[in-house]
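Usage

Read records sequentially. Each one opens with the input sequence:
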Amino acid sequence: MSEPNSADFALIKIQTADGPPAVLTLVCGIEGVTVNRTAQTNETYRRDCTKPNRPGTRKLRVTGSSWSISGTGSGNIDLEEEMTDAFGVRKTYAIELYRDDGTDGGDLMGTYGGTALMTTRNQTYSQEGAGTAEIALEGEGALTWTAAA
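and closes with the structure output:
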């Protein structure tokens, strides 16, 4: 039987200093991570010249691509300065994918990386529960994948 090689969890890190080496800070508290990729297209409809009374069929042309990352989890006031500095500013991000191998750190499978703008930063506080946070990162340029060594 064959099974997919899936990650069990992901971590988002933000570049907080240029270096060298560059300093990446874990966005501690963000535990649910979603990676989205979209191909933008133009569509046209073409009729079959031998059947001119039949509706045309759709043809797609890819005009571009984009990516975004969203994350949800617990709020973390310890990162307030870093998150405020990143909001609405181009920063380098790393999204590390891990397999649960029973160790404290997990087994790194690989890392997505790219430049993005943090376009959403929502925080919720309530006396009935822990604070929550959600962020959205809109990518610029390519989203790269580097498999772990």
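Summary fields computed downstream for this record:
- The two ends are 26 Å apart (CA to CA).
- The mean pLDDT is 94.
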